[in-house]
Amino acid sequence: MSAPIRVLLVDDHALFRSGIKSLLQRHPEFEIVGEAGDGMEGVKRAAQLKPDVVLLDLHMPGLSGRDAAAMMVEEAPGSHVLMLTVSEDAEDLIETLRAGACGYLLKNIEADTLTAAIARAAAGESVISPQMMGKLVQGVRGAPPKASAEAAAPAVVASELNKLSPREREILVLVARGQSNKEIARTLDLAESTVKIHVQNVLRKLGLTSRVQAAVFAVEQGIVQDPRT
To answer: Which of 107, 104, 101 is nearest to 67 (CA)?
Structure first.
């Protein structure tokens, strides 16, 4: 049996932390290693505990979630910071991704979706609530060039698409729509390990480093019109 995913909870609402803690404790694949009620304490706890995943609120008194995420990336580089917030603002989304967060989830998320997202984050995947993917692309398109580049992908010319096989292009579309490797495997009737290799090849051929970058690139090149469709 593999070791449980070690999770740190950082949120200024004690009742919310308690609810998330109770939820995750019902799943043996997760271990709550610590809690913090503000951003600065969260940074200290992340540096001490080196969790696999940090569930981090965005708007907290004192140090903001965005600034806390940036500090956690420096202090605990092996930890994956996953934002869990009520904010549906595209600027908040883009700024936290720029700060180093691996994902952005809304607090109205279903319990099963949350646990799956934490597992994906621990595995190094980028995770964004489906309803935020369109806002990500719109925000990147409307941002100044520098901000757009930092928030999304490095420059990739359209001709790079020619490097992708038909299967890899198909998988790129599904990645852009927010599907996990398991979901893509189910959709295409492939082994999950095969999908993982295809995704790695897509990112390598396009010179990208994350699924979020791949999603933005796919929309910008017209491969999909909107990640939600």
So the answer is: 101
